[in-house]
């Protein structure tokens, strides 16, 4: 199946299915002599793994990563880095009753139409389980970027309930199960999600990812724009249906005067008075924070019966039992961070190759 690799100079390929023996990825293009061990990767996988609160799927996976190539004496060798994560808590029997049914909102129907065969156990490759491999690749990308580039993510909306940006506190994202920067809204989300979960339903979310410390000059014009690659990276995440950079769609309601990120000199350096562009102009980083948001649809696996058809083209109703996230957007926060890290590492290496500097 094509379409399993991402990136140009920093490139990774993911493999494995939700209910197979393991998942993993192969990362190619990592420069040599970068210190790297499994602990460096595990810290980020632990942020994404399921079962950490009542608001995510209760599938119990340690997501313990093993490095099987590309590392010697604690540093990268410049050869492909292969990573494996065993699947430990598989319950394929949960899908026995619906294995010949196309679940609305899922990729069941489209996979069957394209390939004539599909892995119905937990959605196979279409499962959010695949995103653990992306997070592992993102951990390596962060090592390439180094400590000068900081990438953070936050959940800014669940269902119709958005945060108050006046209360934004990055430290708060580590103190609640939602990666929410607004302590008051995090409390409100608890009650809302409890009601969604008890009803056997689901809800969507909006995640914001921010990269600080990216110098001006990364990216390329026209077809390889930095913001274009970021948008594509985020759109490849399971269940994502929309992406915006900087002011995004809100820019359509601004005047030219309001939207312009005016510039002044401060301490001998160019400084911007606003950041509607999200840190990218003409496809090239401006030196400001890179800001992107992506919208995640409600989890398609719900208990509420929905109308559909089966493989025999018979009209049926379906409800999905088993362990599912009432809001898959919660665990998408570290995935969004990882994909942003991968794009930035790729463009950093591309910039060095063309311009000879970081």
Brief account:
By secondary structure, the chain is an alpha+beta fold. It has helices spanning 38-48, 108-115, 131-145, 183-198, 226-235, 256-259, 332-355; strands at 5-6, 11-16, 22-28, 65-69, 71-72, 75-76, 81-86, 150-158, 161-162, 205-212, 240-245, 263-266, 269-272, 280-281, 284-285, 290-296, 306-309, 315-318.
Key attributes of the depicted protein:
five-stranded antiparallel beta sheet, alpha+beta, 25% helix, 18 strands, 358 residues, single chain
Describe this protein's structure.
The chain is an alpha+beta fold. The chain has 7 helices and 18 strands. The chain has helices at residues 38-48, 108-115, 131-145, 183-198, 226-235, 256-259, 332-355; strands spanning 5-6, 11-16, 22-28, 65-69, 71-72, 75-76, 81-86, 150-158, 161-162, 205-212, 240-245, 263-266, 269-272, 280-281, 284-285, 290-296, 306-309, 315-318. The strands form 6 sheets. It has a 5-stranded antiparallel β-sheet with strand order 1-2-3-7-4, covered by helices on one side. Helix 1 (38-48) crosses helix 3 and helix 1 (38-48) packs across helix 7 (332-355). The mean pLDDT is 91.
State the low-pLDDT regions, or none.
none
Euclidean distance between termini CA atoms: 35 Å
The major sheet is characterized as: 5 strands, antiparallel
Overall mean pLDDT stands at 91
Order of helices and strands: EEEHEEEEHHEEHEHEHEEEEEEEH
Helix content: 10-25%
What global shape is seen? globular
Q: Strand pairing plus helix content: what structural class? A: alpha+beta
């Amino acid at each position: 199946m094509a379409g399993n690799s991402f990136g140009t100079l920093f490139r990774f390929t993911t493999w494995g299915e939700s209910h197979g023996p393991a998942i993993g990825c192969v990362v190619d293009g990592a420069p040599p002599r970068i210190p790297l061990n499994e602990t460096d990767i595990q810290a980020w996988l632990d942020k994404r793994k399921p079962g950490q609160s009542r608001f995510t799927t209760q599938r119990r996976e340690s997501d313990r990563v093993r490095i099987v190539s590309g590392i010697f004496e604690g540093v990268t060798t410049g050869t492909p880095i292969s990573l494996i994560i065993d699947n430990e808590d598989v319950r394929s029997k949960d899908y026995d009753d619906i294995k010949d049914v196309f679940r609305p909102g899922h990729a069941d129907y489209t996979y069957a139409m394209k390939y004539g065969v599909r892995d119905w156990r937990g959605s196979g490759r279409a499962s959010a389980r695949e995103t653990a491999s992306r997070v592992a690749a993102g951990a390596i990308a962060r090592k390439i970027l180094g400590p000068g580039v900081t990438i953070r993510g936050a959940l800014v909306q669940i269902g119709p309930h958005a945060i108050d940006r006046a209360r934004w506190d990055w430290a708060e994202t580590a103190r609640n199960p939602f990666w929410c920067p607004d302590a008051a809204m995090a409390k409100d989300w608890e009650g809302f999600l409890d009601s969604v979960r008890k009803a056997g339903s689901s809800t969507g979310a909006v995640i914001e990812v921010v990269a600080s410390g990216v110098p001006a000059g990364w990216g390329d014009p026209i077809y390889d724009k930095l913001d274009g690659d970021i948008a594509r990276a985020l759109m490849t995440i399971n269940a994502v249906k929309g992406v915006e950079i900087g002011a995004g769609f809100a820019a359509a309601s601004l005047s030219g005067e309001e939207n312009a990120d005016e510039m002044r000199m401060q301490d001998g350096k160019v400084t911007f008075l606003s950041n509607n562009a999200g840190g990218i102009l003409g496809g090239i980083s401006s030196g400001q924070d890179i800001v992107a948001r992506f919208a995640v649809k409600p989890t398609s696996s719900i208990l509420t019966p929905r109308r559909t058809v089966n493989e025999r083209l018979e009209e049926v109703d379906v409800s999905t039992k088993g362990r599912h996230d009432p809001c898959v957007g919660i665990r998408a926060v570290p995935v969004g961070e990882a994909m942003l890290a991968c794009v930035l590492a790729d463009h950093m290496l591309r910039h060095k190759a063309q311009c000879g500097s970081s």
